[in-house]
Specification:
heterodimer, A: 510 residues, mainly alpha, 3-stranded antiparallel sheet, two-stranded antiparallel sheet, B: 638 residues, 3-stranded mixed sheet, membrane (chain B), Proton_antipo_N (chain B), transmembrane (chain B)
């Protein structure tokens, strides 16, 4: 029997992932042994410390450019940048998750399996305890995302996809309020996610059939040299892209997004809108830029059509939304379209501007969902837009903050949204994708309308009987909101340092 | 060809030129952030910040006059640097931006002062001044930027402020609708402008004025045409020119000082500034100039024809703004020295139109916010200052010598006659006709408001003159309307020469003296006719009228046109997408599947609820994507 050679692993380079997986496992252990009263604070502190530690390691390792674990994991500029982004955004989302000042016990229910509306459920709703498993689950999801953007072969990528998706499905179902909606959302997300994973896996099989390998480097060589039928290759690219575009919420694979964003507990919606977006586009960038760049000529028109459709669907449907979470969901879809425009520039500028966009959008969108958690009445969050009318009179500070966030989404100058759009459109133009930019500019003008409609509603309508007040946020939510708003402003006024950082990081190893 | 454009670096006192933008911006921030605590003194802070900006602007202006190279650039910091793109956060202070700074801060100061009185009883006065300062800061940024991206910042900023200010009286549904309309039509223009900037980046790798203007010569004429048309689209949106003119009159729903500052004196002239600033692009292509001239001529006629049919004092003035900006577009389109003529008309217009709007506000103030000119009459006895200042502004706008409008409008008419061939007659006669109609409808407005029998509604027994804080700005603006014309037609034209080129008198199809005489004659005729018709008052109700008047009352059917061409298809597209998103794909797939075979029927029974339809739409998408990939592939093989 042949000896199995274990590939050497650079533990320093993969340490951030190891730390987070370790922290998540310890979290599960604590869940079993700690008394209930001590769990929440321990878990929260543990998770936050784990994220900070992982971030520090990434900063220390920031010059690493290697393939490790037998070529399954690539630690290079884009990996480190995107991992850092996921950790920072995950940290913000975790602050929202951990907040218990807005609702006794937090936004999560302790035992989601109890039948909604039963006596046992009413008893637990009135008790002030909430789930604490959410912390290890969230850390598992974040760790999976880190692996997802680092994966350098299709199977590792698939495993990472499942590792970060499964905890998210669970987290979606744990809302304390409107739990039926939350469970429905989770089930939809799970079923459709499994469906999309199947596409991805089938694509992996086809590409393996074509290239005889799942490693990106070998696929890259095969695309140039192989004499195999390219039908396998293109079928494979298409199916893999579909799997990734599902996570990225691009049309026509966006259908789950509004329902899931609306149904999931708002902190988790924030986590999905920011971190999942980063992870999905990180993986898409690596697949397209590293493995399939030789076939760029053939996939650009198709993905370009998807980008246009995504921008149109997101922008046009956002106009008719009446629920703030659904509105933000469609805005997230449209933003996936703009990100695709950046991806399809297929150049170093395209890579760096897409990374910038991901960070800029992530900060803003978490801040937006943080505000959504604050606007509430006795039944929980008041998400119907009619309830937001006149909010500017009741709570000018938060209405002002939200106005600023919406202006950033609309891409008004001196916010990060403007620079981000400017950068991706510029990169796409430079690569000769003018048609994508024209659609991008037109749809972003269109999309500004629903945002400003909310602004006008908040400031220029008389508050009605049903206008809820804005709760004063606890320290955790306030911190997340503050980070998001400050980042949006700073990246809008002085974007140069981050642009430099993305430009320096924009080089894949193969 | 254009000589190389070069700007010197700003030093000394001129390197603080950013204060012009920063001061109103800081004041706006204080007013909006402090909240109710600033209610008592907030409006004076707002007025003061503009006054300081004006004084600073004057000082900079005199500094600039003392320099040899009268264009200084101030680079504040690198704003964006992505790959080959580089955008500076930089300012440019040259003769063109200097006159705009003086107009914005000077007229702006008077209007701010007036608004202290006008908004006295409005509980939102502090917020109003906050928005007003925000507008001034954005407008100053617009004219002071040293590249098109900075111009775009200001452009978006003034749009936002204008939107907020139009909708300021949110409790009036018409104000909210007007705000929306202004916003949407501006977006159309903005999209054109944004694409033009991207085009510059793609072709020239920069958006700096100097580099773009020096690089225009290397572009193909088709590209220059496209760039210019896109810029023009932006300009027509912001300046209420054909085909995007419909929003401007509706914007009058906002408070009157807003109409005066934003929708008469400054923001709406941003389009003229854009074209004058980009004059090397527009001069480089003759077709482009003809398009601009045509837009100007058409709009000036549309504006004054509709102006004749309106009975709301602010709407008449609004359409006259549309028409006067049409003259400015005509001027910038004519090119050469006419650029400077358009700018001096813009400055003169800033004074007399602000005077007219504030005068209208003063009338409304005294008449219980009545705006219908059929219910005025005989007011000269009761508000003498308003009457006198409004009268001077009226004489200025119709172009009676020696008031400012005569010195600025008449040269544009003359310049239109200097074009080559039959177009000289076309555009010259359009401009002349416009002058006659302008005299007619403005005289109608003046006579019906201030003279003739009283036709007031019952509840008004004694109209009163406005307080001094409102009348003093009126007087100062009237002084400007009287004196500024002659001053400007000489010295300002020379001052602007380095930016806009030499003004030389060309060969007109008729002698200059004859054109002058003609334009005065048609003006007097138009005014005389209006006086004869309306000196005895007018009917209190709308009378049945012929097709032309009906069309003019309906804004020449522009609204109906917009509704049919933009609104309906937009609504349809949205509905169709919503339908597709909810059910359509599912239905489509089911239909397809049923046609293909019974397989999907069995599959369908296994699934229930919406997830099924979502999965179906994903499957359809997936099939399309795979099919597209393979089709491309097969096409490549064949």
């Amino acid at each position: 029997m042949q000896d199995l050679q274990l590939p050497p692993i650079d533990y320093g380079a993969v340490a951030p992932m190891l730390i987070l997986f370790g922290v998540a496992c310890v979290g599960v252990f604590f869940e079993a042994v700690l008394p209930r009263s001590a769990r929440r604070s321990t878990q929260l502190v543990l998770a936050l410390l784990g994220l900070v530690a992982a971030f520090v390691v990434i900063v220390v390792e920031s010059d690493t450019r290697i393939l490790t674990a037998g070529g399954a994991v690539a630690i290079d500029g884009p990996t480190l940048f995107l991992q850092g982004a996921i950790i920072l955004l995950g940290l913000m989302a975790l602050l929202l998750v951990g907040d218990r000042s807005l609702e006794a016990g937090g936004a999560f229910v302790a035992q989601a399996a109890i039948t909604v509306g039963s006596d046992a459920d009413r008893r637990q709703a009135s008790r002030s305890q909430g789930a604490t498993e959410i912390y290890p689950l969230a850390v598992f999801a974040i760790a999976g995302m880190l692996l997802f953007v680092a994966a350098n072969d299709l199977l590792t990528m698939f495993v990472a996809l499942e590792v970060f998706s499964l905890p998210l499905y669970l987290l979606c179902a744990l809302a304390r309020r409107r739990r039926l909606l939350s469970q429905e959302a989770a089930l939809k997300y799970f079923l459709l996610g499994a469906y999309a994973s199947a596409f991805f896996l089938f694509g992996v099989a086809l590409v393996y059939g074509f290239a005889g390998s799942v490693q990106f480097g070998s696929i890259h060589d095969a695309v140039r040299e192989s004499t195999q039928s390219t039908v396998l290759l293109y079928g494979g690219i298409a199916l893999i892209a579909i799997g990734l575009l599902f996570k990225a919420a691009a049309a026509p694979f966006h259908v789950w997004t509004p329902d899931v964003y609306q149904g999931a507990p708002t902190p988790i919606t924030g986590l999905m809108a920011a971190c999942t977006k980063v992870a999905a586009f990180g993986a898409l960038l690596r697949v397209l830029y590293v493995a399939f760049d030789g076939a760029a000529w053939d996939y650009t028109p198709v993905l370009g059509a998807i980008a246009v459709l995504t921008m149109l669907v997101g922008a046009v449907l956002a106009v008719t939304q009446t629920d703030i979470k659904r509105l933000l969901a469609y805005s997230s879809i449209a933003n996936a379209g703009y990100l695709l425009v950046g991806v399809l520039a297929l150049s170093k500028d395209g890579l760096s501007s897409t990374m910038f966009y991901l960070v800029a959008y992530g900060f803003t969108v978490i801040a937006a969902f943080a505000v959504v958690t604050l606007v509430r009445d006795a039944d929980g969050e008041a998400t119907h837009l009619s309830r937001w009318a006149g909010l500017g009179r009741r709570s000018p500070l938060f209405a002002g903050v939200f106005t600023f966030i919406l202006l950033a989404f609309a891409g008004i100058p001196l916010t990060s949204g403007f620079i981000a759009k400017f950068a991706v459109f510029g990169a796409a133009l430079d690569s000769g994708e003018a048609w994508l930019v024209i659609f991008g500019v037109i749809t972003s003008m269109l999309l500004a309308f629903p945002y400003l409609r909310v602004v006008v509603m908040m400031w220029l309508s008389e508050p009605g009987e049903s206008t809820p007040t804005v709760s004063i946020p606890g320290g955790l939510t306030a911190a997340a909101l503050m980070i998001g708003v400050v980042a949006t402003l700073v990246l809008g006024v002085a974007p140069a340092p981050l642009l430099d950082l993305t430009a320096n990081a924009a080089e894949f190893v193969r | 060809m254009h000589e190389t454009v070069e700007y010197a670096a700003a030093d000394g006192f001129l390197s603080t030129v950013w204060l012009l933008v920063a001061i109103p911006l800081a004041s706006a921030a204080i007013l909006l952030l402090l909240g109710k605590r600033a209610d008592k003194w907030g409006h004076w802070l707002g007025v003061g910040s503009i006054a300081v900006s004006f004084v600073l602007g004057l000082t900079y202006f005199f500094q600039l006059r003392g320099l040899d190279n009268r264009a200084v650039e101030l680079k504040l910091f690198d704003y964006i640097e992505v790959g080959s793109f580089k955008v500076d956060f930089g300012l440019l202070f040259d003769p063109l931006s200097a006159v705009f700074v003086l107009l914005i801060t000077g007229v702006g100061f008077l209007i701010h002062l007036y608004a202290v009185g006008y908004m006295e009883h409005d509980p939102g006065r502090r917020k109003f001044f906050g928005y007003f300062n925000l507008f001034a800061a954005a407008m100053l940024l617009l004219v002071l930027g040293n590249n098109f991206v900075m111009l775009y910042f200001g452009w978006e900023g003034v749009g936002l402020a204008s939107y907020l200010l139009i909708a300021f009286w949110y409790d009036r549904p018409s104000a909210a609708t007007a705000g929306k309309k202004a916003f949407l039509m501006n977006r159309v223009g903005d999209a054109g402008f944004a694409i033009a900037i991207f085009l510059m980046f793609q072709q020239l790798g920069t958006a700096n004025y100097a580099d773009v203007f020096n690089g225009v010569g290397s572009l193909s004429s088709g590209l220059v045409l496209m760039m210019g048309l896109l810029l023009l689209l932006g300009a027509t949106g912001k300046s209420g020119q054909f085909p995007l003119q419909a929003w401007l009159p509706d914007a009058m729903e906002g408070p009157t000082p807003v109409s005066a500052l934003i929708h008469a004196a400054t923001m709406v002239t941003a389009g003229v500034y854009l074209i004058a600033r980009s004059n090397p692009i527009f001069t480089a292509n003759e077709t482009l100039q003809t398009v601009v001239v045509s837009v100007g001529a058409l709009t000036l006629l549309i504006g004054c024809v509709i102006g004749c049919a309106k009975d709301d004092i602010k709407r008449v003035l609004a359409w006259s703004t549309v028409s006067q900006i049409g003259y400015m577009f005509l001027g910038v389109g004519l090119g050469g020295g006419a650029y400077a003529l358009a700018i001096i008309h813009l400055l003169a217009h800033g004074f007399f139109k602000a005077g007219l709007f504030l005068g209208a506000g003063s009338v409304m103030h005294g008449m219980n916010d009545q705006t219908d000119i059929r219910r005025f009459g005989g007011l000269w006895r009761y508000m003498k200052i308003t009457w006198a200042t409004f009268g001077l502004a009226w004489l200025a706008i119709i172009g009676i010598p020696p008031l400012s409008g005569y010195f600025t409008k008449e040269p544009i008419i003359a310049a239109a006659f200097e074009r080559e061939g039959w177009t000289a007659w076309l555009f010259g006669m359009a401009a002349l006709l416009g002058a006659a109609i302008t005299a007619f409808y403005m005289t109608r407005l003046f006579v019906l408001t201030f003279h003739g029998p009283k036709r007031w509604t019952e509840e008004i027994d004694h109209p009163h003159e406005s307080p001094p804080v409102m009348t003093i700005p009126l007087v100062l603006l009237a002084v400007g309307s009287v004196a500024a014309g002659w001053l400007m037609s000489t010295s300002v034209v020379d001052w602007l020469t380095p930016v806009l080129g030499e003004h030389e008198e060309g060969h007109a199809v008729m002698s200059h003296g004859l054109i002058t005489a003609l334009s005065i004659v048609v003006t007097v005729l138009g005014a005389g006719l209006a006086y004869a018709l309306f000196r005895t008052g007018t009917a209190l109700q709308e009378q049945p009228a012929g097709p032309i008047v009906m069309a003019a009352r309906r804004n020449l059917y522009a609204d109906a046109f917009n509704e049919a061409v933009f609104e309906k298809p937009g609504i349809f597209l949205t509905r169709a997408l919503v339908f597709l998103d909810n059910r359509g794909i599912d239905g489509l797939v089911n239909g397809l599947a049923a046609a293909v075979g019974g397989g999907s029927g069995r599959l369908r029974r296994l699934q229930t609820g919406f997830v099924r339809s979502y999965a179906m739409s994903m499957l359809t998408g997936a099939l399309l994507v795979v099919a597209a990939f393979l089709a491309l592939q097969l096409g490549w093989l064949a």
